Amino acid sequence: MKILAFSDLHLSRARAADLVAASVHADLVIGAGDFCNMRQGIDEAMDLLRAITAPMVAVPGNAESAPELTAAALPNMTVLHGTGTEIGELHLFGLGYGVPETPFGAWSCDLSEERASEMLAPCAAADILILHAPPKGLCDVTSAGQSVGSTAIRAAIERLQPRLAVCGHIHDSWGSSGQIGATRVVNLGPTANWFEVTP
């Protein structure tokens, strides 16, 4: 299956146009959160992506809540947040929001490590983990050199060993990747990232 994945669109009209154009070659499109800005503009963000016809799977970032994304979701979009789905015999599980809690204030949708661990626990197996926040120690370094990823997410990747784990959230680490055991981890950013994953 040819998969197009991105994160952190943040209402960029130019980035959205590029993603829509690329999506004609995709069997599946994955959005790893932060479609809008500070809980504003989720409907506009969905309109920017409306021309995508491939099946889509998305998780909420810290810039939109799960109910907000679900309410605005496109007809071909499945929203995951502590839940899973199956697309073309691939098992996907998603967890959105910032993990651990961000310093951004009341608008930011965040989870504690404990709550993230609880929401990841029901997942027994996955081919692809779709996350907004990166795992601790990988794809999680800020411009100040701080590692701000999630220990709960890292533990879930170590336990499940999916073939692919995608994330975003930390803009300074867009485009970075690495391995946790057998799992390739990629911080996507708002550009077209391509993956080939077979059932």
Automatic annotation (TrEMBL):
<dbReference type="InterPro" id="IPR051693">
    <property type="entry name" value="UPF0046_metallophosphoest"/>
</dbReference>
<protein>
    <submittedName>
        <fullName>Predicted phosphoesterase</fullName>
    </submittedName>
</protein>
<dbReference type="Pfam" id="PF12850">
    <property type="entry name" value="Metallophos_2"/>
</dbReference>
<dbReference type="InterPro" id="IPR029052">
    <property type="entry name" value="Metallo-depent_PP-like"/>
</dbReference>
<feature type="domain" description="Calcineurin-like phosphoesterase">
    <location>
        <begin position="1"/>
        <end position="192"/>
    </location>
</feature>
<dbReference type="InterPro" id="IPR024654">
    <property type="entry name" value="Calcineurin-like_PHP_lpxH"/>
</dbReference>
<comment type="similarity">
    <text>Belongs to the metallophosphoesterase superfamily. YfcE family.</text>
</comment>
